[in-house]
């Protein structure tokens, strides 16, 4: 929001009664409203754009844009901050060099760990950051009540309160079961959001036909779970925007945009998001810039791809008066780049301040300042002994359900295998890449341990574990043997959260995430170094996944088909109920 | 808003658990989200669309669409209800056959006459109508405080209250002087609207350069006053949407869209409005349908023109979850038409109910029910005698300012002429088409009479007058002689408002508008008949304007350049102050 004095200053500057703070001359203005690309000079006052055609204005300071293209800062339309592993204070170093100036974030993870207090603690620095965070207000904490144990929750009252915050732009991704079962609590959240003029984000993973129609009838305005063009088109045809996602393990862009280009689909209701992307991949591959460039490679014209990353998103989230274009009154979030067909931010401005120069971040990171209790959220009641991971069975063999991973997708397939039973215990089958998978309750509440099997990790020895385990964020551990699995849990409690890789009793890699068991306040490069080392150690043990800790954090999800695993056991997602790990 | 029970019913219908109320089979669905036009069946429950691809659904009733195109109902993005002269209850008969199902209305006229109470009285039937009225909340009642006398006003508190109503979609057209002078009251209204997630409508008539930039910095999201492509482009380039207007006297569509087609300008931020259009012209020429068809004639593809009339508008006003597309959960406002290049609504549905069949309105009009006091708003203190219209001057001639009309535009030119003085009184010059123009205060407050001269009416004898006189709605009268002018005022008081034409003491035509002096509750055909007769009588006296009573109602506007006239006298619009009618 802009207050009265700020508004008056801006108008005075626009009238030429007071000088601009800054004028960036000699740029080609990429105007996402008119579609024009024309020479301009961007005039800035108090961090806001006065006009992108400011050549007639006096300014206290003038910069030469060197003839480069001026583009509005990019918008990530759906992201979970914790997937970057980095506290918001340190994230600028990753985001700004990529031109991302706006994160529309659903902080449901911290809320699952620590409720409303955690939610507020995570956002303590929101006004000191050199990128914007707007909130997609977590609609389901816990995600699967009755099917999982969480550390905190957000009830209807909490959600309604947060929705009134000025940073709140939407009700965050509501999973379909809540709508299809017509549960009052969630439908009332939708009603509250709409009454406040906010949209409701969807999460229509895998839904088709009448279920998809019913979900749209629930008031959900978009979907970020489309895996191909046909799915995307089915959403558009039902009046839902499509937030095209390209994260660490969910890569949907190519299949969607190839169709868009081929069919000439209207792109006005398309935009980009990462959802979940690890910091090493943001650093190496990029962020929204990567998606824009890829879209252009696939045949979209640059203006269209840039609109998807800017104004389309701003309009969809009803904040086009604040961000999304280089227009009067909007925040002066600007990317300067030499090439419009392969955008590489050379300089980036946030609220009129130069934060990236020659591609390097030059801003000042605010000091993280989190409360002590947020560093103390892992309390094991069970799971520290190998016996806790044992799965007993009578007979020589057992027929069990397996979570069968899909490469590059968040969804999985429900398959069954026949496993050997030794000494009355079902054992993994490394030859067929079947590991044991467990979720250990970590809030000191009940000591639940859910156990099943998983295919796709490729591990030949040892075990890996994470205290990021959507959406309950208990400890999830996949292993070749019970001893290493137990040690993983012990080590995670010792770190108060993080990623761990153990083999034959030795810790081969660790990445501590002590803030709520989700985030680290170490600098980005240290986190990336730790992540690369633990990933390498995983590969040394035969691991085949590109981002194993991203994968393991998602495979337990009780809301993404076909199967999920929580501390309470195996979940049949479509049926939305617990089932036995044994095929009956 | 949709409440919990309605939402559940809709979801049940979507899941197929209960039958649809209606299925319209065998249509080509014009999908404004994806841009596709494909065969479909529109499924409807409780007045809302379940899905436009409903062939697999059971329904209580099935209609054959006969292969016609199904289009979302059209949206008029800026309209003053009183310009139709018809009470909202009777307007359906004009709008629905033209496919207009949504009026985004700024009821500033009734507020100027009767304040918040008048505002509420006008909207008494809003839930009984078979079209939607959403509110652009009048930002300036009075428009020109200190320069005009009005019957009522809306202060900051009133405006903030109305903005919270569920029907309120925006702050209504704020005129530039308020912003450029940085007046707290109006900037606080902008802030209030934005805080509530609503947009602010602009009214940037004639503004260019730094003033336009300053206006955009004021938070105004659009402009409906563009007269040509260059103006429209200048707004788009500053991040303002353009509401292309085609009213009775302001005809901007061709000049704007010819440019859009020629330059390939992005049309995502373009939409349509009528602003002010008399009922006879809506009947003969059309409404938004006329603009869509004209846009297609000018070279836009039909989908693009239809998007401008539907989804673009809905998104701009942030009500795309309610209207603007044939998508799940939206109101079932549907046009069926055989030809997409020349749209002629054959059947029209409002909230799923057939209200137009074979082009004819078949709905049921609600009974108007207005309070008695609203029929009693014209109280003359002065202006009933010819002496009240005399303009004294010493000497043989006087140099006076003239409001020189522009054909088909709302703006006028400030020119000066030398007029003869007879018996100490300045007299009109019929040879040069210079009539006397007066505004008579009609709220019984002070008996002010403002006098100047006007060029462009073509009248050779008599006088015409109207109690619709933007935005103060005093009595405005243009005449060849003072006696007929006085009689006009007397007749208008007798009717308690309306249009009147008098010559040589005889009333040659009248159209009573007794509700606030603005509206008639007579049926549309009677009003149109009266309007046609009075227009014909005007032409019989030499009149040359196509819609003289629309013109006269606007030429006094103290906010549209160059000159205005109020009960307090002649207004220099750019200087925003009263000036003498004599050139000094």
Task: Write a concise synopsis of the structure shown.
The structure is a homodimer of 584-residue chains. In chain A, 27% of the residues lie in helices and 25% in strands.
What does this 3D model show about the protein?
The structure is a homodimer of 584-residue chains. The first copy, chain A, is of the alpha/beta class. In chain A, 27% of the residues lie in helices and 25% in strands. Chain A is built from 16 helices and 29 strands. In chain A, the strands form 5 sheets. In chain A, strands 1, 2, 3, 4, 5, 14, 15, 16 and 17 form a 9-stranded mixed sheet that branches. In chain A, β1 (22-30) and β2 form a beta hairpin. In chain A, α4 runs parallel beside α6 (184-195), α8 (229-237) crosses α9 and α11 (288-297) packs antiparallel against α12. The first copy, chain A, is globular, with a radius of gyration of 24 Å. The mean pLDDT of chain A is 96. The interface between A and B is large, with 70 and 70 residues.
């Amino acid at each position: 929001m802009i207050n009265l004095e700020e508004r008056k200053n801006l108008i005075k500057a626009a009238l030429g009664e007071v000088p601009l703070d800054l004028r960036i001359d000699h740029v080609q203005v990429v105007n996402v409203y008119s579609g024009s690309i024309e020479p301009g000079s961007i005039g800035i006052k108090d961090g806001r754009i006065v006009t992108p055609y400011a050549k007639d204005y006096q300014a206290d300071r003038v910069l030469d844009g060197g003839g480069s293209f001026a583009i509005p800062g990019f918008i990530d339309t759906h992201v979970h901050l914790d997937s970057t592993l980095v506290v918001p204070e340190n994230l600028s170093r990753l985001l700004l060099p990529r031109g991302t100036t706006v994160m529309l974030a659903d902080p449901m993870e911290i809320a699952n760990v620590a409720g409303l207090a955690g939610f507020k603690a995570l956002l303590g620095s929101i006004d000191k950051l050199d990128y914007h965070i707007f909130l997609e207000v977590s609609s389901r904490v816990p995600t699967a009540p009755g099917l999982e144990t969480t550390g905190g929750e957000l009830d209807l009252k909490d959600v309604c309160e947060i929705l009134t915050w000025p940073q709140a732009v939407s009700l965050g991704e509501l999973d379909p079961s809540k709508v299809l079962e017509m549960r009052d609590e969630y439908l009332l959240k939708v009603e509250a959001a709409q009454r406040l003029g906010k949209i409701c984000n969807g999460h229509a993973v895998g839904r088709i036909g009448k279920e998809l129609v019913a979900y749209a009838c629930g008031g959900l305005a978009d979907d970020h779970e489309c895996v191909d063009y046909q799915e995307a088109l089915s959403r558009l045809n039902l009046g839902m925007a499509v937030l095209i996602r390209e994260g660490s393990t969910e890569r949907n862009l190519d299949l969607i945009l190839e169709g868009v280009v081929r069919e000439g689909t209207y792109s006005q209701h398309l935009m980009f998001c990462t959802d979940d992307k690890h910091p090493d991949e943001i650093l190496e591959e990029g962020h929204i810039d990567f998606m824009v460039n890829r879209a252009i490679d696939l045949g979209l014209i640059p203006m269209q791809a840039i609109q998807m990353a800017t104004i389309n998103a701003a309009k969809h989230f009803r904040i086009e008066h604040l961000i999304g274009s280089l227009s009067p009154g909007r925040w002066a979030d600007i990317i300067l780049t030499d090439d419009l067909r392969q955008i590489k931010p050379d300089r980036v401005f946030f609220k009129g301040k130069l934060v990236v120069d020659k591609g390097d971040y030059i801003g000042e990171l605010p000091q993280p300042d989190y409360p002590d209790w947020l560093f103390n959220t892992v309390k094991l009641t069970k799971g520290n002994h190998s016996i806790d991971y044992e799965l007993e069975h009578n007979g020589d063999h057992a027929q069990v359900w397996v979570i069968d991973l899909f490469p590059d997708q968040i969804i999985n397939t429900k398959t069954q295998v026949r496993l050997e039973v030794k000494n009355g215990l079902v054992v993994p089958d490394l030859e067929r890449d079947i590991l044991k998978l467990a979720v250990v309750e970590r809030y000191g509440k009940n000591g639940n341990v859910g156990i099943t099997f998983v295919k796709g990790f490729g591990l030949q020895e040892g075990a890996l574990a994470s205290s990021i385990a959507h959406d309950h964020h208990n400890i999830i551990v996949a292993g070749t043997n019970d001893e290493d699995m137990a040690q993983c849990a012990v080590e995670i409690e010792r770190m108060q959260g993080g990623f761990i890789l153990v083999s034959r009793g030795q810790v081969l890699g660790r990445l501590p995430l002590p803030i709520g068991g989700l985030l680290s306040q170490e600098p980005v490069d240290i986190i990336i170094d730790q992540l690369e080392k633990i990933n390498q150690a995983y590969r040394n043990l035969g691991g085949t996944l590109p981002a194993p800790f991203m994968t393991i954090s998602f495979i337990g999800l009780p809301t993404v088909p076909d199967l999920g695993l929580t501390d309470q056991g195996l979940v049949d997602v479509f049926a939305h109920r617990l089932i036995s790990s044994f095929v009956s």
